[in-house]
Amino acid sequence: MSLSKQILSVVIVSFRSDKVIENCIQSIPETIDIVVVDNSNSKALKDKLEKKYKNVNCVLSSVNLGMGAGNNLGLRYIDTDYVFILNPDLILYSEAINHIIEELKKNNSFGIIAPVSDDVKYPNYRIDDKNLKILGDNKLLSVKSIDGYAMVLNLKRLKKIFDKTENNIFDENFFMYLENDDLCKRVIDKGEKIFILSDSKVKHLGAKAVDPKFRYEVELSRNWHWMWSKFYFNKKHYGYITALIKGFPSFGSGIIKFFFYYIINNKFKKEIYRQRIQGFIFALLGKKSSYRPKIID
Q1: Which of 20, 218, 258, 283 is deepest in the core (most CB within 10 A)?
Q2: End-to-end Cα spacing for the chain
Q3: CATH number for the domain including 138?
């Protein structure tokens, strides 16, 4: 199979990511088309990116869709066989995409392939030891799941394995957190492979995607959605009782810490644990992942 860079596109979902997204875009070869889905609906960002980068199409969302639905929206603008899903606070090493394309020339028998993080203390993958396989020249590692900030999707294979009830690649019930774990589990359950390519490296800045001036509201949102997503993920794949058992210790701890920080009048910490409690309760009651960061310029 003859492959070129034209069979690979990039999707980046952004939200108030003006300070970091250009570093990400500049690390991507100009020959590769990029779709930026901006959840903050910033016409100024769209105008800036499309004027400065000829390979960028910035799609504005009138509402904050979150990561899962945002990626699905970006995929609607993709007509290549493979798509590289990236976070805006991600920087590719100079040969990262070239190494991935070279691998695609030899192998397309996977659902997802991903580069490796340059931070060895925080690997971007999880291994099932029973299925650990080092293939070929030891550059390709079969893994159980990968972090969602950098992943290449084999769209043809994924669209074939998901049935009509799974119209979207990503489950849009997730707003933030675990949408990638959900996708990886569904891919593995369908018998597809997930690989890490060890000679393709990336740098993830980590929790830098949103402008730091919105830190307070973003932290509230993260804590709410972590509790909601964790419960929903476990309920979806393992059942309600398992979700309850796994989530209750964090819920109980959150209640204790909420009252502790209430007593010592630490308003920030108190609000953090209030959001954790509410996120768990919403998931427990089967309510949607409805919390949205309240961002005001």
Answers
A1: 283
A2: 50
A3: 3.90.550.10
